[in-house]
Amino acid sequence: MRSNGAAALLNAFQGLRISASTPLRQLRAPVQRQSKVLGAAQLLQNGRAFSTSPAMMGTWLEPSLNRKKKMAKGRPRVATGGSTKGTTVIWGDYGLRMVDHHRRISAKSLKMAEDTIKVRLRGEKYRLYKRKCCNVGVYVSGNEMRMGKGKGSFDHWATRMAVSQVLFEVKGRIHEQIVRDAFRLAGNKLPGQWEFVKKGDAPVVGITKLDGVTLEDLKRPRKQVVPQELLEASPSTTATDVGSTPASSGSS
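The structure corresponding to this sequence follows.
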């Protein structure tokens, strides 16, 4: 009786034992795959598909830079020597472009414009692209400090916006008039004047749109130069020496 009871108890313990290692591998593989899928989803959520900048460098409204290190605010670089960079729609179907003058725009204004677009396009299937990054720190002294007491403390982040550059782009299955209305509301929140552009519109050099005009035409001199063939075909004029009188006057 004791041997039978011991054998039954041993069989019961052997049934509870995890004997093979293959089921562990089979159980471990789905967990690893699930973790990889979650990691890829997090990277897609944090990453910006329209830029090569990693997410660890900061957001487009507040980069991961040292605020205590003073930096020059500078002026926006306006490329007038033949560059069309940043003046056309690249990733989206519609865009919002500045038309009046270059300036610095604070991150607060950009965030307000972004929220305005998202509220207007709520419920639509779209994707919003931001073309600028607030990487310029603005430091102010304030009224409590006298002149000559330093540059001041950090106040806000800003971006340099040149004339004729695109700030926002929208892509998706959405009507053009809805996007126009959203960009109109966003332009009212931003300083300056803005215009609505589509993908495929002509680029801009300075304030000149290349609509029927090429860069070669802009680089040519404005003064009309007479071709060499016309100069050779024109009749030669006789030049008279200084102080000499024509033959007709001497005969008379």
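The radius of gyration is 36 Å.
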